[in-house]
Write a structure and sequence with these properties.
The structure is a homodimer of 240-residue chains. The first copy, chain A, is α/β, with parallel strands linked by helices. Chain A has seven helices and 13 strands. The longest helix of chain A has 19 residues.
Chain lengths: 240, 240
């Protein structure tokens, strides 16, 4: 069933006050009418069955649905590519990412505006509605590599993907990690087009990140993010 | 080193006659000048080191490079989505696909023009140059499902991806298949947005296809293609 994501403040007792965007989506895009049902989610696992009423912008909550289980943490830390990050956010959400941290690299000269962050958050929300995942990934404001890595001291499940062919493959690393505990949190770090500098790799390893490779092929940064997430999601689902 | 894909007829003895597009790419985009070197590939594994000369549109072949090994066959048969197939072609090429067969579904009303096929072939060629794979995938003219499946009788390594959660997962299927012979040919069939009809699934199984699932999440068709290819490429590289 079609879903929308609501803000907790929109729910008052057993009614929902819809905003104009939600009304547009439900009535114009999905063509629902008074009496038709839909699912409202809060993006954090809570879900309700809603029903449009005759009053414009108003819906009734018919029932509280069983909450979605909180998914295992899967964080994508990715250098912003010149283009294509919208698609990365959308596809990463489909593949079950829970958190996204964009990084600014030397090749990303302009810091994206707060508007951009809102846009990515909206794309993530729409993708989570379409793929029927109850959780909307949280997207953090972009940081540069040095800001991001300082004070970090990581243990297992933190992978720094490099283009070096002789680094261990991500697939066997993740299989070993998750075979003991499929719910283990994972953080994946994907570099910019053109790869990490040797200094960045050294710093990441010093902070406890494990270097891993996505294989022999040269992947664009956007393809690399999706490849890594596809591998992790498949291994996790195989073991759960 | 930067590469271009040439047609065998462009190579005469130890010279290359470049076409206007190649001249534009080498001189305007890559800013190479007379005396600068590049790699020419035929898209079928042969590669040469070329060098621009002072004569416009003319290059010298300095040496024949070791040919790329023919990659194991990995065919993607995918229902054409409404939008996004250009990205599928590009990313599938990065992930090592060798053949692409677009399928027309009931939801794809218009048969794409021959121009579209040329465009996909050009995208595949450019992606293969950028990711430094010596092979350019072959893209066949679109067929509808019934035309495509008739006369097919397949054995192992042919996967029909369905959205049914209780179908066996693609990852374990491919691991079992490739553990004996990592070079085994694989054909992956990915359905349209909205999924296969029960009749299509029945027909595919009757032709020997193995039903497999890409997991619990609902993936868009374009994300499903890339997820499946990422899994296969990772398993193959782990075993080779």
């Amino acid at each position: 069933m079609q879903r929308i994501t609501i803000n907790p403040a929109q729910r008052v007792a057993d009614t929902l006050q819809l905003n104009s965007e939600q009304v547009h989506y439900l009535q114009r895009v999905l063509r629902l009418r008074a009496g038709d049902r839909f699912i409202a989610q809060d993006g954090q696992g809570q879900r309700w069955q809603g029903q449009l009423t005759e009053t414009p912008g108003h819906a009734k909550i018919l029932s509280t649905l069983a909450p979605s289980l909180r998914p295992a943490t899967l964080e994508l830390v990715a250098a912003l590519p010149k283009t294509g990050f919208d698609d990365v956010v959308r596809q990463a959400t489909e593949l079950g990412v829970t958190d996204i941290q964009p990084l600014l690299s030397e090749r990303t000269l302009l810091k994206p505006s707060p508007k951009k962050l809102e846009r990515w958050q909206r794309i993530a929300q729409e993708a989570s509605e379409q793929c029927e995942r109850g959780y909307v990934p949280q997207i953090s404001p972009p940081l540069n590599f040095t800001e991001w890595i300082q004070d970090r001291s990581v243990t297992s499940g933190n992978y720094f993907c490099v283009a070096r062919v002789n680094a261990p493959g991500l697939l066997p690393c993740v299989q070993t990690l998750l075979s003991d505990s499929p719910q283990q949190s994972i953080q994946l770090v994907i570099g910019p087009e053109g790869g990490w500098t040797p200094e960045e790799i050294t710093v990441a390893i010093a902070h406890g990140y494990q270097e891993t490779s996505l294989g022999l092929g040269i992947l664009r940064a956007t393809t690399a993010s999706l490849t890594a997430l596809a591998i992790i999601s498949s291994v996790r689902e195989q073991l759960m």
